[in-house]
Amino acid sequence: MSGERRDPVRAAGCILWRPALSGHGVEIALVHRPKYDDWSHPKGKRKRTESAEACALREVLEETGQRCALGPRLPTVRYLVEGRPKVVEYWAARALGGTFTPSREVDRLVWLPPSAARLRLTQPRDRDLLDELVTTAG
What stretches of the chain adopt beta strand conformation (E)? Predict the structure, then answer.
């Protein structure tokens, strides 16, 4: 087992929201990753010298095309990926505008009311984050 890395994979992301186009409530952005065929919040691995906040902003922009303003910090999520620990720091973030362009990494973006977003999310840990945002916001 020599050479096997056990340092955690560090990542960051956001629960991206915007005021609903209907004028009532908010909508949550979810991204679809074809590699895993899952729906999740935008997130990704931190670069070596990058802060968690900078990573979260970069990943949202790369995956959704949206610039955003970080809001309240949300719980940090920890889980294993192929036996290696992963630590993802999250923020609530308000979308400020931009244009989504599909890529190999993220091929679809949807904006949904929180209840519909909760049903669409693949991982229970992502639903827990959304619940936390809804509870804190209101």
Answer: 9-19, 26-33, 38-40, 43-45, 66-81, 84-98, 108-112
